[in-house]
Amino acid sequence: MSDVVSPNARRWLDTISFAEGTWGGTAPRYDITFGYKPIKDLSRHPNQVVQGGGYSSTAAGAYQFMPGTWADIAKQQGLKDFGPRSQDIAALALLRQKGIDPDRDPITRENIAKVAGTWASLPTLRGESAYGQPVKTFEALRQFAEKRGGAAASGATPKAPAQQTTADKTSGLGQILLNKFIDMLGVSGVRGLGPRSSLPTPALPDYSEGEEDLASSELDIIASALKGRQEDEAERQMSEELASRNLVSNVQAAEAAKAQLLAQALGAFGTPSSAI
């Protein structure tokens, strides 16, 4: 391995050191054990039990390697000492073993969780240590990583999806399908209403992009069935009601009839299996 560590890999190493409590302010501390006991000889892993904070551990170095972990990775990488360069090489190798490319992959919540089983101070997706130990929050890690090289390497903190309202469900593909449904029924003037808050809006399926053709086909079938089975009955009922109200204009009666038909059609759209 080259002695030159890429900026992104350096951010990963520094962030792990920060999480493990070995960050020295400007660089990792390679010469301390768990419990901050100095390591005088970096020719090998000290393999010494140290107590601190109610815990006992043999972890040592900037990335708090356990003796067994260090022995395995040192053998794989051909490392002959426990010096800073060897510790960096070993930590980067552990990242790669977990599917992280430290030269390219950003420090995101998901990537951090991939290596939470290697470093106990890194949070899982649930925000906890994989070993029940004190853990740094992802937000703290994100802020530290940004200071070590900018937001591009840290990733954005995922936000919980907002609760979806009925109006939200008619956006995107759902709105396209609803518009198509309205067009099929031939209802004039509907597009002039602006937001469809005045219409009886059914809860539309949340189709993905790849399902658009299937959704459109389903909609064709539903619309055809509704028009064929409900139009005559709907018009008869509407004619009786319109006559009883003595509407003054045939144009007004026709528009009201179309709006009523749309309401019935959309009401049935929520449960298509019972309408076919």
Structural commentary:
The chain has two domains: 147 residues, Lysozyme (Orthogonal Bundle); 108 residues, no CATH class. 45% of the residues lie in helices and 2% in strands. It has nine helices and two strands. A two-stranded antiparallel ribbon has the order 1-2. A hairpin with a 2-residue loop joins strand 1 and strand 2. Helix 2 crosses helix 3 and helix 6 crosses helix 7.
Write the layout of secondary structure elements.
Layout (H helix, E strand, L loop, with lengths): L6 H14 L29 E3 L2 E3 L9 H11 L6 H14 L11 H6 L23 H10 L25 H13 L26 H33 L5 H20 L2 H4 L1
Antiparallel strand pairs: 1-2
Structural class based on helices, strands and sheet pairing: mainly alpha
Low-confidence stretches: 151-215, 271-276
Number of alpha- plus pi-helical segments: 9
Would you tell me which CATH topology of the largest domain applies? Answer: Lysozyme
Helical content band: 40-55%
Strand order in the sheet with the most strands: 1-2
Give the rounded overall mean pLDDT: 73
Number of domains: 2
Task: Return Rg in Å.
Answer: 32 Å
* First-to-last CA distance: 67 Å
Give the DSSP E fraction (strand runs of 2 or more residues).
under 5%
Describe the global form.
Answer: elongated
Report on the biggest sheet. 2 strands, antiparallel
At the first level of CATH, the class of the largest domain is Mainly Alpha
